[in-house]
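Hi all, posting the design record for the shared folder.

TITLE: backbone redesign
STEP: 1 of 1
STRUCTURE INPUT:
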């Protein structure tokens, strides 16, 4: 310290403390002691009332937190303020500035004499030589006030204070080298700091200024704790320099470097650094938020909780809407905890709610969040209602609303079916439904107000069901209870009525609640909630509420989530708000039928035939009438007659007597598969109606069954004249018996056919009893060619077993055209395949339900249901023995029927007729044999037949193609006559091929030729027969095989009407059947 530093003494007198006399006396004593010109007095607060108001508050820069009501400087009058200003002006102009100018002049002369110039610099360096070996110390060497180094530093500081920055910079440079050589690092850093400020003030070199500040800052840091405070000061100067030059980003970096070990010190500087990032261009928001989080964390460590909350709350807008979920959870969780420490539990709960559904956090962190949240809630001592509570998550997009207007559902499965499926099924059952009318209300005979056409309609007393998916997004279980719908019901039905603030009364609606736990992560729990309006009016489903762990009530408003909700049984208007899907007009209560089908199996095998019972219940006070029913798949289900209710099954399927042949009709069944209940049928109030149904599993697979029942009400509601009941069932049908048939015509007898039946049991464990094979219609008579015991000794087919057997099929219609006029008995169209000593009557395939299901099979295959007496259809009936397990009838044998329609058979058949033995005297050159070929066309098309004959084969002529002979063409099938004693022996097609492939020993058979036409073309009308002559010439006795001819045929539809069966095989080629003629030499 300079002992000769300028000294000036000021005496301040407050007029509020007493008169001026005492102050005057004291001033005299001061002047006597310190000098006459170095002492001065200033009087303040001369006002007596203190009510003076200053337009410009003189203390505003020094006390910015002063309240507007505080009257700062109220006792200072204008004279006091002028006196203070005059004193300061006099002090600076007459004392300080002259002293400093004089001091600069003296010091500059001393420095110039001792340090400036080449000689003085060389002397200084020589004198300081060897100081490199000085050990570094914290403070360095001690410089006295009179030392040249101290004088140079004072000269630089005075020059800096007076604005002579060039002089100051030259002296700072001069002394900086000395301090560095003397290893006086603290003084060296101070000089570098002043050089940086000087460079900044002269605004010449930014690079030099920042270099000096960087050098000074690093030197302070090397000094450790002794230089920490100086480093902070240097950093703050450095920051202000950077801010002045708009280098805000670099200033934030310096703030971060200033941070030290002191927590509060670091918190303040980190907060200032974050503001620099915010003010930079462009703003660096993520760094701004990150440094604020660091600042808040340091504030919390030094128990400055309010400052920590302030910084953390400033971060919330930064990360809102970003994917930085972890830091957002950190911010909200800590704010919640800190508010709880301050006792502000309501605000704490608000912030804790934002971290409840943290799916990205670990299981441990989720448990921590949830536990602390419930602890804070418990401290409040009340139950919180939270809108948009995130636990559990409600999947609004999967929201399903089930309600019933004129369309009612028998089950939830029926309500889940697409509306388009039901509409296509109901096209024939609703009388006036057409494509031009899309709204069901247009179908009513009476004009309906527009408000009903454009609204969702529900019936008073009938529940509206809402399926809501609750999802637990956490990895830990949560407890959810008391889930219920929030509804508003208004009794005012006017369109303009405002019911938004009307709550449902206890006698107006009923809302269901559900309780349960969602136990693990990513588990969906679908809850069905119901609301039942009791009066007419407007009902609106507002949202859903639930309880989380019995302490927090969650609310979800559906209108605030305009998602794509699925309204299962509602109608959407072209333009409507999202809330319209949950707004209903409640109309007057109307009758509603409930439907059940008893004994319908969920799983069965193909062919299963059984009776069912449809039960319709009317729980209302009004009857319903004019019932109609339509079934989507009549192959599986159709309605029977009332007399078939409670029949003895399967005895009801048997023939009453063997002599009686019954047709089958069902007058109630229309061609559109709509079943009309009898006109006098109605379901009275609080009564039920039972109606028989027949079930037949036609094909295997997962089969959906859709059933719609239409009924009408009278005098109940002017809005709805009818309603429909929709029923839906899913069946699983497993494979059972695979049945196929092959027919072959017999050449010698055109009215007889060979039938081969192949049966395979394709089940895995069931054992079927083969009971009966029947041909459909009265044209065919069928009989076994072998005994049943030789075909199937066990009378049953076990799993995986196959069976092949042969039958003779006779065309009774052709037999009736013979010359014999004897009345023919009724054909035997059934063959018993079970025990032959069984006296039970066979199943009646010509009566309901077997005949009806057969009609459905033909219709499904594109064949007419009537007029199939000219075709060959078969029905195979099997049974599962008594005791087989069935879910509905464990002790009743199950009956299975398998239907085969239009079994494959060549539409062209022919017979070669003529003498089989001839005697001839071969003294004549040749022997002529006359034959006749009868060709029959059994199809509905015109047949073109082409017969090509070939000469007798021999080893020297055209050889027989063994491959062709052994493998008949595609449609060649049938029997053949062979030269044995009895021409009734039967062989199969394969046996025939093998037989024809064996060459008879023709060593002794002479050649023969076809002496007639070698090519004949014929045209046969539908279902006609034509005869054509044939002739051969033989040249020697022997036995001749006349099968060397080929018959080609082609079918042409009549009037463009194509039969499906005939279209699949419109042409064919058949080789001739073996026919043997023996020519003997006459004596």
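Okay, here is what came back for every position:
SEQUENCE:
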């Amino acid at each position: 310290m300079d002992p000769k530093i300028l000294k000036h003494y000021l005496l301040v007198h407050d007029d509020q403390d007493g008169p001026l006399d005492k102050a005057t006396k004291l001033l005299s004593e001061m002047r006597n002691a310190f000098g006459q010109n170095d002492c001065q007095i200033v009087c303040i607060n001369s006002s007596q009332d203190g009510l003076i108001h200053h337009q410009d508050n003189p203390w505003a820069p020094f006390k910015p937190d002063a309240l507007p009501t505080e009257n700062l400087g109220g006792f200072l009058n204008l004279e006091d303020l002028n006196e203070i200003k005059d004193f300061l002006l006099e002090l600076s102009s007459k004392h300080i500035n002259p002293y400093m100018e004089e001091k600069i002049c003296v010091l500059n002369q001393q420095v110039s004499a001792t340090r400036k110039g080449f000689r003085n610099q060389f002397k200084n360096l020589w004198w300081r030589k060897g100081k490199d070996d000085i050990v570094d110390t914290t403070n360095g060497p001690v410089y006295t006030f009179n030392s040249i180094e101290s004088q140079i530093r004072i000269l630089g500081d005075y020059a800096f204070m007076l604005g002579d920055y060039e002089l100051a910079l030259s002296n700072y440079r001069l002394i900086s080298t000395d301090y560095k050589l003397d290893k006086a690092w603290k003084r060296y850093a101070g000089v570098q700091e002043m050089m940086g400020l000087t460079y900044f003030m002269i605004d010449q070199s930014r690079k030099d200024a920042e270099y000096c500040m960087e050098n000074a800052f690093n030197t302070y840091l090397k000094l450790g704790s002794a230089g920490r405070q100086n480093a902070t000061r240097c950093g703050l100067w450095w920051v202000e320099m950077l801010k002045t030059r708009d280098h805000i980003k670099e200033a934030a970096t310096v703030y971060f470097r200033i941070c030290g070990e002191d927590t509060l010190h670091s918190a303040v500087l980190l907060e200032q650094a974050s503001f620099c990032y915010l003010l930079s261009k462009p703003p660096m928001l993520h760094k701004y938020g990150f440094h604020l989080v660091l600042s808040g964390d340091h504030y919390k460590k030094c128990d400055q909780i309010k400052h920590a909350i302030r910084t953390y709350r400033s971060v919330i807008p930064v990360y809102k809407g970003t994917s930085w979920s972890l830091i957002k959870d950190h911010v909200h969780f800590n704010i919640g905890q800190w508010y709880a420490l301050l006792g502000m539990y309501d605000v704490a709960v608000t912030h804790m709610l934002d971290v409840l559904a943290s799916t990205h956090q670990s299981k441990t962190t989720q448990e921590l969040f949830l536990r602390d949240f419930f602890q804070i809630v418990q401290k409040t001592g009340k139950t919180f209602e939270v809108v948009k509570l995130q636990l559990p998550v409600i999947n609004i997009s999967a929201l399903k609303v089930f309600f019933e207007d004129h369309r009612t559902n028998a089950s939830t499965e029926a309500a889940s079916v697409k509306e388009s499926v039901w509409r296509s099924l109901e096209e024939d059952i609703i009388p006036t439904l057409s494509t031009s009318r899309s709204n069901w209300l247009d179908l009513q005979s009476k004009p309906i107000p527009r408000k009903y056409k454009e609204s969702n309609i529900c019936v008073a007393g009938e529940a509206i069901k809402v399926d809501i998916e609750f999802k637990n997004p956490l990895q830990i279980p949560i407890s959810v209870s008391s889930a219920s719908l929030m509804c508003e019901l208004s009794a005012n039905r006017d369109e303009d009525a405002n019911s938004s603030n009307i709550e449902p009364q206890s006698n107006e609606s009923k809302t269901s609640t559900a309780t349960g736990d969602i136990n693990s992560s990513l588990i969906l729990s679908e809850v069905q909630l119901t609301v039942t309006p009791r009066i007419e009016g407007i009902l609106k489903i507002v949202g859903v509420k639930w309880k989380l762990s019995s302490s927090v009530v969650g609310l979800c408003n559906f209108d605030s989530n305009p998602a794509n909700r699925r309204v299962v049984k509602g109608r959407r208007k072209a333009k409507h708000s999202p809330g319209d899907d949950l707004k209903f007009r409640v109309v007057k209560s109307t009758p509603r039928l409930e439907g059940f089908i008893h004994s319908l199996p969920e799983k069965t095998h193909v062919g299963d035939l059984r009776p069912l019972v449809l039960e319709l219940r009317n729980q209302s006070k009004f009857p319903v009438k004019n019932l109609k029913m339509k079934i989507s798949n009549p192959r599986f289900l159709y309605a029977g007659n009332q007399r078939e209710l409670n029949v003895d099954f399967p005895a009801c399927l048997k023939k009453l007597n063997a002599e009686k042949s019954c047709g089958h009709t069902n007058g109630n069944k229309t061609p559109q598969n709509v079943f009309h209940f009898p006109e006098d049928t109605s379901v009275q109030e609080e009564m039920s109606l039972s109606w028989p149904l027949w079930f037949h599993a036609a094909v295997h697979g997962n089969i959906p069954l859709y059933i719609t029942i239409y009924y009408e009400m009278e005098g109940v509601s002017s809005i709805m004249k009818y309603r429909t009941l929709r029923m839906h069932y899913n069946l699983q049908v497993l494979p059972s018996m695979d049945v196929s048939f092959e027919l072959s015509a017999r050449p010698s007898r055109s009215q007889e056919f060979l039938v081969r039946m192949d049966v395979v049991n394709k089940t895995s464990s069931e054992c079927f009893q083969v009971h009966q094979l029947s041909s459909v219609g009265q044209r065919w008579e069928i009989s076994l060619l072998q005994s049943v015991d030789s075909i199937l000794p066990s009378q049953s087919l076990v799993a995986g077993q196959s069976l092949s057997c042969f039958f003779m099929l006779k065309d009774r219609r052709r037999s009736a055209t013979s010359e014999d006029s004897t009345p023919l008995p009724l054909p035997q169209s059934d063959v018993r395949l079970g025990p032959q000593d069984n006296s039970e009557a066979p199943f009646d395939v010509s009566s309901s339900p077997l005949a009806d299901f057969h009609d459905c099979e033909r219709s499904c295959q594109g064949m007419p249901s009537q007029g199939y007496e000219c075709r060959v259809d078969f029905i195979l009936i099997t049974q599962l023995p008594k005791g087989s397990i069935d879910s509905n009838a464990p002790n009743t044998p199950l009956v299975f029927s398998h239907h085969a329609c239009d079994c494959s058979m060549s539409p062209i058949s022919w017979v070669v007729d003529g003498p089989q033995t001839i005697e001839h005297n071969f003294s004549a050159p040749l022997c002529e044999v006359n034959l006749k070929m009868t060709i029959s066309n059994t199809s509905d098309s015109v047949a073109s037949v082409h017969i090509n004959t070939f000469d007798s084969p021999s080893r020297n002529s055209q050889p027989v193609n063994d491959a062709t002979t052994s493998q008949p063409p595609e449609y060649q099938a049938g029997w053949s006559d062979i030269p044995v004693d009895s021409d009734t022996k039967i062989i199969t097609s394969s046996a025939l091929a093998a037989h024809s492939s064996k060459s008879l020993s023709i060593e002794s058979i002479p050649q023969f030729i076809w002496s007639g036409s070698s090519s004949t073309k014929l045209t046969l009308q539908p279902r006609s027969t034509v005869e054509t002559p044939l002739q051969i010439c033989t040249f020697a006795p022997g036995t001749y095989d006349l099968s060397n001819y080929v018959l080609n045929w082609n079918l042409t539809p009549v009037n463009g009407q194509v039969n499906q069966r005939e279209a699949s095989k419109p042409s064919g080629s058949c080789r001739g059947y073996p026919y043997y003629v023996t020519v003997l030499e006459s004596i």
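COMMENT: The mean pLDDT is 79.
Let me know if anyone wants the other runs.
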